[in-house]
Amino acid sequence: MVEIERKFLVISESFIGESFAQKRIVQAYLSSVPERTVRIRIKGDKGFITIKGKSNNSGTTRLEWEKEISLQEAESLLSICESGIIDKIRYEVKVGNHVFEVDVFSGENEGLIIAEIELQSEHEIFEKPLWLGKEVTNDERFYNSFLSKKPFKTW
Amino acid sequence: MVEIERKFLVISESFIGESFAQKRIVQAYLSSVPERTVRIRIKGDKGFITIKGKSNNSGTTRLEWEKEISLQEAESLLSICESGIIDKIRYEVKVGNHVFEVDVFSGENEGLIIAEIELQSEHEIFEKPLWLGKEVTNDERFYNSFLSKKPFKTW
Asked: Out of the domains of life, which is the source (chains A, B) (predicted)?
């Protein structure tokens, strides 16, 4: 239930040609409080509820709990979420031994592209592709829960 | 996913002798915002996550979604909930064709006893036992999400 992930800005769209899967993600929050976010997500034709605790001091380890739910349940729960729906296409890109999830945001967050990688430990080594920019793991502004309240276009 | 329930204060403990089941309930909230409460509950030896929307104007119809989760998951999620744990014994009492759930609170809410009945429609008729007091369906102070922030003993 604990995940280690690192987040980076993306500086070119060249990853799209290397992507082996793409899915639209629509999500919103029942709670966007950083100590306990509760997210409802539709990813392709599946629904999910995901709960995350707050990161530890280094920002990379946090409690995460997720369950698949039906599309109908997800739609029903989205209807009572906080305003600020996030809409994005997620590209999966294999680089060396790892898979990056690269999110291309639309709507109020258009212009923003973020890559995320899940690691076994905080110091695990991974290959950095040319399109990978600055690390933003510890920058709360790039949390989806923050983007739903303060979208990229308003920065 | 829509429930109709009415809530009443309880004016005597005589219901205990009529009860056919009792379970301890410990619960807390990931979100206690009335528009979208997210509750983690341990009831006996089972765990649950429950999400409720806001009541309509008459206060009796609201979106409700619930999934059973493991005891271990519930304990893990309770650890990141808002402060203000609710601890109570729930008695089930059959009265006529209906079952009342009667909650006897302890801890910070000691002294409070609330009976709840689930109905098919807002105007369904049901038998009122002698121990049933004033209706509090529309009184937000008696929501468990409110009691977790403003416990009965502080009133």
From this structure: Bacteria
